[in-house]
TrEMBL record:
Enzyme class per UniProt: isomerase
UniProt keyword annotations, A-Z: Chaperone, Cytoplasm, Isomerase, Rotamase
Record has Chaperone as a keyword: yes
Stated role: Also involved in hydrogenase metallocenter assembly, probably by participating in the nickel insertion step. This function in hydrogenase biosynthesis requires chaperone activity and the presence of the metal-binding domain, but not PPIase activity.
Domain named PPIase FKBP-type: residues: 6-70
Chief site of localization: cytoplasm
Gene Ontology cellular-component annotations: cytoplasm
UniProt-recorded name of the protein: Peptidyl-prolyl cis-trans isomerase
Cellular compartments annotated: Cytoplasm
Length: 168
């Protein structure tokens, strides 16, 4: 089976800052990465490189900020009030969270600092402004189920109860 649109792809990868050689992410530490190919769920240049490849394929892909996570945008660093976090049991520096935006989209943020009632958050991806090197290996390929395609994400056998969209 090949990497084609609507197939579930399982990857192992390491991501390095290509300028400093700093290891930024390693799936060996957090588990493999799964995505539905061709649905815009991963870095486009990686998906393009993997298109048509087979299980076991390994490659190294260089990614500029423009091709990856963009340039750092100071406007995505914002001040919020502690009361904006009332729904959270605990907040801490480095905590990731998802915010609903005015245009009905969502944006990932990270708490950068907490000073009393003032919380500084950053909506930039941690890899923004970096030249990256992805060392990628395709470890599995399978057809996505009709439910996965309908829901727009990979399901894991036995874990569907954790999927909010699957508990309707």
């Amino acid at each position: 089976m090949k990497v084609l649109k609507d197939n579930v792809i399982t990857l192992e990868f390491k991501v390095y800052d290509n300028d400093t050689n700093e290891l930024l992410e390693d799936t060996k530490e957090v588990g493999p990465f799964f995505y539905i190919h061709g649905e815009g769920q991963f870095v486009p240049v990686v998906e393009e490189t993997l298109e048509g490849k087979d299980k076991g394929f390994k490659t190294t892909i260089m990614i500029s900020p423009e091709e990856g996570y963009g340039h750092y945008d100071e406007e995505l660093v914002q001040e919020m009030a502690r009361e904006d976090f009332a729904e959270f049991d605990d907040i801490y520096e480095g905590m990731p969270f998802v915010a609903d935006m005015d245009d009905d989209t969502e944006r990932d943020y990270t708490i950068k600092s907490i000073d009393g009632d003032v919380i500084i958050v950053d909506g930039n991806h941690p890899f923004a402004d970096r030249n990256l090197r992805f060392e990628v290996e395709i470890t599995d390929i399978r057809e996505a189920t009709p439910e996965e395609l309908e829901h727009g994400h990979v399901h894991f056998q036995g874990f569907e109860d954790d999927c909010d969209c699957c508990n309707d």
